[in-house]
Amino acid sequence: MKKESKASILLGAAFLMATSAIGPGFLTQTTHFTSLLAASFGFVILVSILFDIGAQMNVWRIIAVSEKRAQDIANGVLPGLGIFLAILVVIGGLAFNIGNVGGAGLGLNVLFGISPKMGALLSGIIAILVFVVREAGKAMDRFAQIAGFVMIGLTVYVMFTASPPVGEAVAKTFAPDKIDIIAIVTLVGGTVGGYITFAGAHRLLDAGIKGKENLAEVTRSSVSAIGIASIMRIFLFLAALGIVSQGLKLNPANPPASVFQLAAGNIGYKMFGVIMWSAALTSVIGAAYTSVSFIRTFNATLEKYHKWIIIGFIAFSTLVLVIIGQPVKVLIFVGALNGLILPISLGVMLIAAHKKKIVGDYKHPVWMTIFGVLIVVIMAGMSIYTIGQEIPKLFA
Question: Could you list the residue range(s) of the whole structural domain that residue 188 is in?
Answer without folding.
Answer: 3-394
